[in-house]
Structures are given as C-alpha cells and as structure tokens.
Amino acid sequence: MTGAAAPEKLTESPGTFEYPAGWSPDGEWFVFTRLDNGTQYDLWLLPARGDRKPVRFLETPFDENIASISPDGRWVAYDSDESGTPEIFVTSFPVPGEKHRVSTSGGYRAQWSPGGRQLFVWSSAGPFGSSLGPAYVVDVQTAPTFKAGTPRRLFTPPRNVFGLSATRDLQRFLTAVPVEGWTPALRVTLNFQPAIE
Asked: CB 174: neighbour CB atoms within 10 A?
C-alpha cells in the first residue's frame, strides 16, 4: 500500500485551455494559467482552503503565464508579452502590486534558486519558442522589497536542444537530445476525439 490518495480535479473550465504553474511554498495557493477570449492568457489562483473558488491574479490585454513563486512566498515571476516580446516580470504575491521587469533580451520560464537570491531565465531563439536561446541568471533581492540585477549569460544551448530544465540548485541541466541517425517526422492523426474522451 502506497498511501497515495485518489486524483482530485482542481479546476474545471469547459472550453477553456488551462495549465498548472505550481503551489505556493506554504501550500495555500495553487497557481495556474487560463486562456480567456477577452484577455488572452491570465494567471489565476486557487485557494487550498475555504470555498476553493479560483480568482484572477493577473488580467491584462496581454499574455501572462508560466508563473514561479519565490521560496519565501512573497513574489511571483511570470512571462508577459506586454513589451511586444516575451519577458520575465516579478510582482508581489498573493496580491499583485508594483511589477519589475527582470529580463532584458527576451525571457520565459523563470526559475528561483532555493534561497530566492537568483532567477534563472531561458530565452527563445525562434518564433513561438521553437528553439532555445541563451540562458541567463539574475541576482535578485526579495526583502524588504524586490530588486533585480543585470542578467548574466550562462550558456547558449545547441540548436538541436529543446525542453531544457534546470535542477532546483541551478547547478545541472536536463534535456533530450536527438539520437544519431534520427530524422524528424510529422505524424497526423485523424478522428482523434474518441481517443481523448
């Protein structure tokens, strides 16, 4: 016996695309992204207690997504295209306040270091994130207020790398690489609806 509980549905929004971002360090909030026809992608919060009714966290005419909450639970880093290109911004949490732009050359998928003193940021080298650009690290201060230093380039992954992920300590990176002799292929599936119901 593993002691694992049965899966529990957290949100339900028929006809709307949603994907998870994660939990706050204290386990009180679940952060997720929801696509809204009027405001694009927005960040939402689901409280772990009470009526557990989702509430909007960030709602603008732009896309806000892929949120990451700081280890002290006071700040959230997220992607936004309000500048015309995806960049990383930070605002207070769980109530949004003044926002701070962290990246300077494009950015998405920010990741906090365990102590909350650095943000690791990926950048995109192709349209719609089709390939990875340089990876950056930014020194940050989270108390008494938020401040960010200048992004420092760590490395640029090879062009055939996609889906790079950092370990929690930001010291190692995991990715999938093509097998020698592998050639890309496009597979089309028709009448797929019954397979996902």
From this structure: 9
